[in-house]
Every structure is written in structure tokens, then in C-alpha cells.
Amino acid sequence: MESSYFCTAGGGTEIFLADELKFISARHSGDLQSERCSSSQLQVEGKVLFTFSGHPAELLNLKTAERVFVQLCYKPHWIKQNGKDSSIMTALQNTLEAITPQDWDNAKHTWNFVNPPKKRSARFQNNQKSSEKLCNKRQKTENDDVTFRVSLKCPREYNNRRVSSMVGGCITRQTGWKVDLRKPLFEVYIQLNNNHLIIGIPLTKIPLSDRPYIETIGLRSTVAWIMAHKAQIQAGDTVLDPMCGVGTILIEAANSWKSAKFSPQN
Ligand SMILES: C[S@@+](CC[C@H](N)C(=O)[O-])C[C@H]1O[C@@H](n2cnc3c(N)ncnc32)[C@H](O)[C@@H]1O
């Protein structure tokens, strides 16, 4: 099933992310030769919005994305259209209410593919057994176990806490999910700026750009990968970085182009 997503990317690297997404979509549709792909794409500052019909876990292999989100809502020029005064709260509430419970459920379903609910369903089943005995208590639904926290990025003139709390209330009314600020199951990310309003659920808690194989943080991992990619490394090549520093480019390259040789010096 085709789902909508967006990825965040470092400033100026959106074009490389867009290329990588085209490649992944084309590979998925088996159409690498013609570079045709079924997905649609939109590049905005710091993000690429796209649709993808493959398994969401495939997106976790992206090398040029900082984070990947299931997309619930995207409205360009939203602030311009809705004003900057207190009516913004009403406008935001209306926008949130236009996202249907089915939309939220679909996004959660996509998130589940990457975060399988094994442990949660065991707990849910145990809870169900005991609640069956307590016939006066209402039947527990799966949504009772779903907790979230709103992660809001908005201009300073807005009261972040007030807006987050209003957004949290709207989502709870639509979905039955509960707010948990300390240990939520997932976050609902909302960014409101002069360019757009965007809402999504991050597929992973840890950004994709936090590579498990990089111990010392140097160059941004996505930029290091892009530089290695631009070098068009071929099998059997020896790759040198005479100014390797902590070696981020070499580590990124060695991880993706395993058939080459790598050296910090000649
Ligand atoms: C931005 S870091 C390089 C990052 C590195 N390529 C990586 O992948 O993480 C720049 C490195 O170049 C080295 N460097 C700068 N000028 C140099 C010079 N004139 N001769 C040798 N090394 C130099 C610095 O010591 C530093 O380690």
C-alpha cells in the first residue's frame, strides 16, 4: 500500500535525499533502467515529502536522511493564510480535526511495521484476561495502550506549551490515544513556520543519521556519505582521505562500498 512520508535533511542536501528516494522507489518497482518510479516527491527547505509503496523498514536504510516520518498533514503557506493572532489556535484546531481517526490509525499502522507491537500485545492480552473477570469495567481496547507526546516546533511568538497541549487534546479526542510526556510510545511531530505546517510520526526514536558504527562525532554522517557517493567508488578501488580527521567519510564509505579498500593515508 502506498503511504505518505517525509524525511528531514541538512540544509542544501535535500537534492541528494530526493535522488536517493528516487533510487529506492525505482528499485522497489523494478524500474531502475528507465528511472521511472511510482512515487511522487516534493522538496522543501530541510525536507523531502514523498509517497512510497514498499515496506516502511526499507526507508531506515536511507543514508542522506536525518529522520523519517509517516506524514499526516502538509499545508504550504499555512501561517500566511491563517494570520498570526489568536485565531491561529482555532485554525490549527480545525486543521487537526480535518485529520480523520482513520488517517491517524493508518499512520500508526505504518509505524507498527517498524515497531512491532509484540511486547505491547502480550501486556494487552494479560490486561484483557483480568478485565474479563471485572465485568463492570469497560472492555480494554488497543488504543488504551497507545501513548504519545507532541513535539512542536513553532515560531517564538507562539506559546509552545499552550499550543502543544491543545494539539495533544485534539489528538486524544480523535484517536483515544493518551498523552504521556515521560515515556510515550511515539511522538507526534508538528512543525509550524513561515513556509508550512507539517505533521508526522517519526518511524524511529533515534535519528537515522545517528550511525551505530560511528563512535566519534565529526563531520555530519549524511554529508560524509554524500561525499563518498560523489567519489563514484568502484569495486577494487583504494580510497584515501589524506585529511581524514576522525575518519567519518572513510567509515561511511567503508560501510556502503564494501568491495573497495580504505586507507587514511597512502
Ligand atoms: C573537516 S576535518 C576532515 C573530516 C574528515 N575528512 C572526516 O571524514 O571526518 C579536516 C581535517 O583536515 C586536517 N587538515 C587541515 N589542514 C591540513 C593540512 N594543511 N595538512 C594536513 N591536514 C590538514 C585537520 O587536521 C582535520 O583533521
From TrEMBL:
GO terms for cellular component: tRNA methyltransferase complex. GO terms for molecular function: RNA binding; tRNA (guanine) methyltransferase activity. Keywords: Methyltransferase, Transferase. The lineage of its organism: Eukaryota, Metazoa, Spiralia, Lophotrochozoa, Annelida. Pfam families: THUMP, UPF0020. Residues 113-203 form the THUMP domain. This is THUMP domain-containing protein. GO terms for biological process: tRNA methylation. InterPro entries: RlmKL-like_Mtase (IPR000241), SAM-dependent_MTases_sf (IPR029063), THUMP_dom (IPR004114).
